[in-house]
């Protein structure tokens, strides 16, 4: 329930739109609202830069490319290049990660300097009524609309929460002075997969544990099996296991059971068990908005509005698509609608598009197939350009409408899929068919050429489907 006294007390600050959280979504929301002529406040207690720049996309990619560099040198003998003994200076690796990360963080912080005077509020915020916020600096805010853009936090469940500094998350891993000798990674989502393989390729003994058989939330069983095979080349992988942990000496003793049973000692444990929305302490119970079973506001993904209220939500806080470009898009939609409230407009969302920067990378786009979907598969095991580069592994699976062959989605793991995925998302947006994609010129020899066999499978299946429909519709059935 809202606080009637707080709701009736004059507020210290008033604005059209208050945004809680100055990450990617919050910054985009504040800009969009201001463009609509709204007066704004942007509230954050840390002003640390975006999750992507500080503890997510950028530092993880810096670690990944270091691992890829070491891996490439180790494989140079395949091409007749002898390099001798190769070592990894773990302290130098981590120093570069932090140095470059700080460069990216500084760039994001420059955006803070462009905010109009009085917009930035250095505090935490909690609701005391749907249109009222209490700030930790003692000030109160009355806002016509409020946008929740508080982001997410790394979950550290039992028993890992009792491991102290031996339990790392993506928010602490990059502060290590050097590389650990051994590392257990808990969780097989994108963060776990990327960092596990990167560490393994830098010479760390890595064991990756998954509570179920999932890998990066892949729904395509064939692509998932291929990714499993690829990852197993670099690290030890246990799926469908329960893991127990305890401090032992200067490290950690893990034991696991389920599909496999065993125990082992590790210097550190990286907990990558997910990033729930950062909503605790927001006072959502005072707003009257509907919450789901996890305490997350129920909202319309096309307007980002919570019910019919003046409260909107965007970015990782809504626990829908935890991806930077989605957070930016959601912030812009929420900011526009919050500024124009009570008039809100639905905005069509782009097709789902996610990447996992393993090597080779994983790309998932569009919708998973249903029982009627046409499916085409391209193998990269003997693809020309991939073989030239000695990266010939992976598969791409395409999904299309029956009859038309219109592309509806894809799941892929293989060389260049982070770039090829962009091509296919554009094809989805423009409603391309497998046939129309095959009409596009494919330069030789490129990785893109590898798509052709799977697209041809869809064309053949679409042709057979149409012929079957015609046959069934004929009087004789022949």
UniProtKB/TrEMBL annotation:
**Ranges for the Pyridine nucleotide-disulphide oxidoreductase dimerisation domain?**
354-452
Instruction: Note the coiled coil stretches, chain numbering.
Output: none
What Enzyme Commission number(s) does the record list for this chain? 1.8.1.4
Record domain FAD/NAD(P)-binding: where: 16-329
**GO molecular function per UniProt:** dihydrolipoyl dehydrogenase (NADH) activity
Q: Which Pfam families match?
A: Pyr_redox_2, Pyr_redox_dim
Q: Which cofactor does it need?
A: FAD
Transmembrane stretches, by residue range?
none
Instruction: Name the UniProt key words of this record, in alphabetical order.
Output: FAD, Flavoprotein, Oxidoreductase
Q: Which InterPro entries match?
A: FAD/NAD-bd_sf, FAD/NAD-binding_dom, FAD/NAD-linked_Rdtase_dimer_sf, Pyr_nucl-diS_OxRdtase_dimer
Which protein, by its recorded name, is this?
Answer: Dihydrolipoyl dehydrogenase
Q: Which organism is it from?
A: Pseudomonas benzopyrenica
User: What lineage is on file?
Assistant: Bacteria, Pseudomonadati, Pseudomonadota, Gammaproteobacteria, Pseudomonadales
